Fold each of these.
Amino acid sequence: MTSSFRVGDLEIKGYSDGILKTSLNMILNMERGQSEGLVGGTDNGWLFIPVNNFVFERDGKIVMIDAGSGHDMQPTLGKLPENLRAGGIDPKAVDVIVLTHIHPDHANGLIDADGAAIYRNAEILVHAQEYDFWMGEETGREPDKLKAVRARNKRNMKPYVERVRRMREGEEVLGCTPVLAAGHSPGHTCWRVMSGRDSFLAWGDIVHLSAIQISHPDTTLSYDLDGEMARKSRHRILDMVANEKIVVAGAHVNAPGFGHVVRKNGTYAFENA
């Protein structure tokens, strides 16, 4: 089922790639009982979180934010291409893909099982800091897990390398402007999309567990490359969107995946749009 919201003259549609199985074990600084209570219970610590993608059309171009998890990550994922088709969008018709970062649940979906581009006509917008880190050479001192992610990211990006636009703060394409919010990854980026005087913010992985990290923004996860930097970025972005009252589109925010951050009881809460 497709959900949508409007900002100015833009209609932004949300498309699911499926649900990602994860665990409360990735939480580094919260007691299990508290985290269980906040998410409403788990299956021995296991739970599923959504993987949301967002699409809009501007100036005759179809723009998609992130590309999903692909065919081989988990059996509950990789649904984005078929959901796009069900919504009347052929993946070949996507003109621009805006990446919040190049982690597998956001970029594995760029390629098929043979490593070929699914979005064969799309240009990729990604922050230069993110692209240069993952596409660079190993330092020789990286842990094996990081090496494996780098190798996978390079494979995902390979069919697109001639169609990558490395973005920096202050630059804009089709109303999309990067807001660097590093920590989760070296160049993790929120994208502000303008429509007249209005805008929305696609915030990527500012939060993974929306039931926990919005009301408890100091909560850090093992997924973050730099947990302290990610924590500071989360506070900064939550403060910004609450102050400006702009719509947020979250990759892992529960359905419909978009809404407003409000201040509540000395912290933050999320209200669906």
Amino acid sequence: MPKLMKRADIPAFLTAIAQGNPDPKTELHYATPFQLLVAVVLSAQTTDVAVNKVTPALFAKAPDARAMAELGEAGIGPLIKTIGLWSAKARNVAALAVLLQERHGGEVPESREALEALPGVGRKTANVVLNEIFGHPTMAVDTHIFRLGNRTGLALGATPRAVEDQLVKRIPKEMLKPAHLWLILHGRYLCKARTPECWRCPGAAWCAYTEKTPVPSGKKPAKA
């Protein structure tokens, strides 16, 4: 059973992993709230890098909801064929564009209920949009945050929702919005799935993980 990080250590841990990145931004490329929504829908079960390769051509043809609805599933599909589940995603993006036009005048709504009513938009996608676009203190638990929460002891849970609820409860309110991306980026580049690079983690001193990886030969440990 993983150990729980001390609640008093959480601010110090987050401050440490945020070094040099006080105002983090998503790595998905977008110019408008609509484009971010589409990019997040496309990113399910694939990487941000893969999504960023297809969205320039897609957004050049359909920069807003009206144009995307007109492009339709048949027009979207060929532009996103290199990403996973592209056929279902093309169908969802076309349908959500239509609904945005019909229900919200083409604008992305600032409402969890309205967002989750759109095709292809679940709780995680809604949390990303609410956090990134509208500044809400939400926590979108992806595979990185789920792993990191349980490994470090920051938030223990058997499901993404359980980890989300614990993070929202345990992280100081003033740190919750940026913590979403701090944790994603930390899990993506340092606290990796197979071999976490504990030796260069600035938050290691507060982390409850007991099997920390040693410093490789010729490397220097991070300073907390």
